[in-house]
Amino acid sequence: MAPIRLRVRGPSAVVTLEADDEWTLAKLLALIREKTGVESFTLKSAYPPVALDLSDAESKTLAPLKLGGETLMVIPTEGGLAGGPSAAAEQIPAAPPAPKPKPFTPKRVDVDETVVPWDEGGGYLVLRVMPDDNSCMFTAFGGVMGISDPAAQVRAEVASHILANPDKYTKVVLEDTEPSVYANRIKDPQRWGGSIELQCLSEIYGIQICSIDVKYGRVDTYGLDKDTRCILLYSGIHYDRIAQSFDLGLPVDMDVTQWRVDDDSVIDKAKQLAAKLKSAHYYTDTQTMAIRCEMPGCENWLGSGQKDMIKHTKETGHTAFSELSID
Length: 327
Known about the structure:
Blueprint (H helix, E strand, L loop, with lengths): L2 E7 L4 E7 L4 H12 L4 E5 L4 E2 L19 E6 L38 E4 L4 E6 L7 H9 L5 H15 L14 H8 L8 H11 L2 E6 L5 E4 L5 E7 L4 E7 L13 E2 L4 H15 L10 E4 L8 E3 H12 L4 E4 L3
Parallel strand pairs: 1-5, 8-10
Antiparallel strand pairs: 1-2, 3-4, 3-5, 6-7, 7-11, 8-9, 10-11, 10-12, 13-14, 13-15
């Protein structure tokens, strides 16, 4: 009998199992129940995940299923996990509070504003909110690629990529900044990432990145020639990640964060989520917002809109601002 090794990702753990290709599917299902503690479930495999046919499990053998080397996702059925839908928009654990100067803070929304059903996809699209630490874009993308504590690593990769491609990332492209200076600055944890960094990350990781603007509903796409895509949500001064969850009680590490580029249904659904967030005012109008510099010795500087902010940054090198509420 030929051995089969496969990984099984359950709601609380990832386990590696060994089976034989002559096993019945029923025997494998029994082993999965034993190792994961989940009694009733569906299984999804391949990429993007598709449901396995679990019918006739007593008569099917594993050999025709070609599961060797696969990762199977265990999706609980009959109501999902304990805790229910209240866990739907489980937030990415926040990083420890950053010292002053403070970054912009994204607007807050209720849990039910961060979820849209996606019946065709077999679950929901959800907003995964990133910490307010000036590295939101890097953290959002790092989660797509499964990078733990991604901000410093992703920043360093972008800096190296810019320096390794001087013909493409010239001073003109880099906002009138010398490549060496720009690369050094982007490693600073107080610096924000934007379109240049998203283009770099698309090239580094070979993935299409779609950034949906909440206010305008616009989709900016980086990496048109790629086969898979991920989706970030841009709310004017902040990036979050959009993910697919097959059950609202599943933990964040069971999210699907990559999809085929030849199927735009996920983009359509993500735009619906963005429209829902716009209705909840989950965005900042960068053209009219009142801002103040939070760098020591510059607290009295006030400005209005992104143009003033960019101008002040170029003149002083300051990168930490707060948005002022105008009642």
